[in-house]
Amino acid sequence: MIRTIILFLIIFGVVVISHEFGHFLIGRRNGIRVLEFSVGMGPTLFSFEKNGVRYALKLLPLGGACMFDGEDGVGEPDGDKEQAGDLRRKAMGESAPALTEDGFQAAGMAFTEAGVWKRIATVFAGPFFNFILAFVVALVLTAFSGADLPVVGGIAEDSAAMEAGLKEGDVITRINHEKIHFYREIMVISAMNKGEALEIHYTRDGQKGVATVTPRYDKNDARYYIGIMGGGVYLDCNPLQVFRYAFYEVEYYAKTTYKSLGMLLRGQVSKDEVSGPVGIAQFVGESYDHAEENYGTSSAILTMLEIVVLLSVNLGILNLLPLPALDGGRLLFMFVEVVRGKPVPPEKEGMIHFAGLVVFMVLMVFVMYNDIMKIVH
């Protein structure tokens, strides 16, 4: 249990810090004053102040924040901005920001004073840094593990794949309009299929072919199967291939995330298939134990790195959704500002983001409760 908690905190912390550091770095580069950089939510466990920024570690490992001066006060009258900043700092128990040696904080501007494109870049940087982290970790994974090639290892008897003419050794290159780079992509497409016909493109002995496969329903497993088995053919990547397949790795998790979101919106995912921090922590612990027991510590470490890629891509994509309180929701208002030539009235935007935050907090409580109930039962 202790190891599970430690692993989860390390992985989640790395992903969250990467996200918030993106906001922090680009915001500072654009001359925007930063009040606080924190990891976690709720009461502060530890904090210190340097160059006018308070760095804090908080009790609940549910996220993080990079708080810019004026970010929650868009459109405040000029005479009230300094007073509003003081009120925010007092509410957090902070002193006024200290000045850097080069006067950075003094010369910096409030978030609302920055040009719209600087604000867009600052907000977008959080999710973008998640993708950067995912790609860097994917480079390490690919260098050590190689790539699982989409080679058919076997065909199930009396299956849809056999009826369509697929054979052992075929290399799957595309399914419908989706290019295939890994064998696990075939598994995901099969798992998410609801009986729709699949146009499978493949190569066999250097010749291209196309087979139309209609997955068959299995009553025992309550799902559809293509009938392709095996895999297990790995490519030991050279340096150039490492970069290419690391990109495919990030792309794979991005596509999987979008497909999962689509299934969730269509009601094809049950509440038991949705996990929050508690469920993720359990998944991390079980994955480490399984990998270590069956393949050794080095494999367990690589599995943890794969989870970093998964969570980082997930966080990046989820934050880009155009929903209130998320980065995507804030970006939506800024692009409206670009089109209109003036910002949306701050009180209206603030109310929408606050309502969105309340909804997300209620949803988080529900998901955590559901995670705990799954563990208890």
Brief overview, please?
This protein is an alpha+beta fold. It has helices at residues 2-29, 78-91, 104-107, 116-145, 160-164, 183-192, 239-265, 277-295, 297-319, 327-340, 346-376, and strands spanning 34-50, 53-68, 147-148, 154-155, 171-175, 178-179, 198-204, 207-213, 216-218, 223-225, 228-229, 234-235.
Architecture blueprint of SSEs:
Blueprint: H1 2-29, E1 34-50, E2 53-68, H2 78-91, H3 104-107, H4 116-145, E3 147-148, E4 154-155, H5 160-164, E5 171-175, E6 178-179, H6 183-192, E7 198-204, E8 207-213, E9 216-218, E10 223-225, E11 228-229, E12 234-235, H7 239-265, H8 277-295, H9 297-319, H10 327-340, H11 346-376
Antiparallel strand pairs: 1-2, 3-12, 4-11, 5-6, 5-7, 7-8, 9-10
Helix pairs in contact: 1-4, 1-8, 1-9, 4-7, 4-9, 4-10, 7-9, 8-9
Key attributes of the depicted protein:
4-stranded antiparallel sheet, 54% helix, 377 residues, globular, alpha+beta, 18% strand, 3 domains, two-stranded antiparallel sheet, Pdz3 Domain
